[in-house]
Every structure is written in structure tokens, then in C-alpha cells.
Amino acid sequence: MKQNILKVGTVMGLLLLIGVFASCNDTKKNDKNQELGNIAQLEETTKKSVVELRKPVVFITGNDKGSSHFYDSARVYFKERNYEVINGKYSLEEIISWMNKNATKNPYGEVHIVNNNNPFKAMNLETVVNGEKVTVESLQKAINEDRLPSLKDEAITDSTKIIFHTNQLATNTNLINTLKSAFITENKIPQVVASPYYNIFGGEFSNHYLAQPYYVFYPTANSPGKVDLSKEIAKKYPEEKEIDWYDALNNEKERYVGEPYTIQYSIPVNLELDYHNSDNEIPHFVMQEEIMDFIASEEALMKEVQKTNIPVEKFRWTYIVKDSQLIIKGKSSALCVLKPLIKPYGDLEHVKPDTNNKRLYAMK
Hints:
Helix content: 25-40%
Order of helices and strands: HEHEHEHEHEEEHHEHHEEE
Keywords: Signal
Shape: flat
Strand content: 15-25%
Distance between the termini: 91 Å
Protein name: Lipoprotein
Number of helices: 9
Strand order of the largest sheet: 2-1-3-4-5-11
């Protein structure tokens, strides 16, 4: 009898344990199912929150002149990448208006602005249609006076990149920040990306590459000659040991990958003083030195020259008197030696202009 009771007790215990284990397994299954359900719900929510960006848009903001092929080459370069290329927009007003008009449910991811600028002058881009060229002062004035359209909030995200393909724009921090303010919306702040290097499109060995610039200046029409200029530029950049400056100044194109070569352009300066309400007489000058001394004595005029970062003696100065105005004009010739950026290892080739590379592009 006792044995039967013991057997019954054992069986009931086993059944109880089986029930407990079964209950645990059911609980685990329910927990696992709940966890999988949560993951699926999270994935679905994430999918909904991720906004699909439209393909990159490129604004070609100028036309080639003379033997230059900068804009045509840039147009080909970006079309080959299946980017949307927009022509005929020569001002920030037109660029922003186009972006607003063509905004979709998919915000802009990358907006490329191609502009062949002279680093010593205003950008070759208008603020508004037929308005002043873009400088810190002209652009800020246009923004303050509400002459620029505001970019639609839904047109961009905080990760949108406004990429300027220009020459050395990243070295002008004030202008970069002012350009950024032109693209800020009510709730979104895009990134503005530019390089401290020269942008070259349509090269002999690469369709697009970057180059380090080196400068030497002289008064226009008064060149001291390539020998003296090569000595001057060598003294100016003593850390650069790889360039034969005389050869580079006499070389007009890249004949092999990475070969330094020289481009040339003029930098004009116009200075005006109105003597209409002045007790002083309008001065007259005989020699260049007299004009330079006068400029140095006038703080406002000297500030205008200093904006170019070119010494006053590197300009050829002339002047005219028109009614009560003294108009002084200066012109400097710049020889710019360009040293293409090449990979430091492997095959001899240009460094790829990767806009995500912070060594090549500054991001504000």
C-alpha cells in the first residue's frame, strides 16, 4: 500500500514538474515572439523615418571664355555620373529659386555649385540676377535686405551638402559662413563644403583633380623676368623642395601626372575718393611711388588693397580726375604655380576629389 502511495506521489510530482517546464517554455516562446514583434515594429518605424534623398543636382554657373574648358568639362564630368545638371543659373537667387520650384517629397542630398573664380576677386557668381558678385559684404547685404529667396524647409535635411567646386573657397572662412546662412531654412542647417585647393576639370590625365597653388606677383606690364620671379617664389615657399620653380613658371600644362605648371591672371583694384565736400585739393602724381605713398596715408584706400592680400608695390598704378572724384586704378599680374595632388603610394595618379575627405574639403 505504501509502495502504491509512493508511486502515485512520484507520478504526480513528475506531472507537476512537466507542467512547470511547459509553462516556462510557453513563457519563453511568448517573450521571444514579443521581442521579435518589437524588432519588426522598430524596423518598420525606422524604414518610415528614413527619408530617401534625390540624386545629386549640379549647377553650372558660368560659360567658358577663350581657351578655357572649365565649365564644359565639369558638365561632362557630372553627366557621366548621372547627376542632374542645371545650366544657365548665374546667381544665388536663381539657384535657390530653382531648388524651391523643383522641390519634391525627396529632399536634396547633394547640391553641387560649379564656379570658376579668381581667389583674389569676388566670386564669379551673382548674389541676385544682374546684381553684385558674391563677396562677404555683398551677400550679407542681400540677405539683410531680404533680396534673396528663402529656401523651403522641406527641400533639405540637416545632412544636405551644398558643395562648391571653386578655387580656394575654403580659405575664406567668412565667405563660407555667409554662404551657409543663405541656405539655412527655418528648421534645417545644411553643410557647406569647399576645398582650399584649386579645382581642375578636364585635365589631360583626370577629368577632375585638385592642385596646390603657389603665387608670385608683379606690376602688370612690368615683369622682372622668369629668372627673378623663380628666385622670389622659391624664397616665398622655402618648405616646397620638389618644384623646380623656373621650369614650372615656363610650363603651361601638366605633361605628366603631377607635373607643376603655371596659369596667369590679372587682379584689378579700383579706389575712389570724392573731394566734393572736402577742403583738401585733389592731389596730382608724377611717379608710381607718389601714388603708393598716398594710398598708404589713406586708411580706407589701404584697407581695399589689403583685401587682396597682395602688397601695394605689386600693382601698376594709374589715376584720373573726374569732376570732384579721384579715381586710382591698380593692376597686378599673378603667376600661379599649380602642383596637382597625387597619391603618395602605388601607381602615379591624382588624388580622388572625395568631398567627404576632410583633408581635401572643409565642411562648415
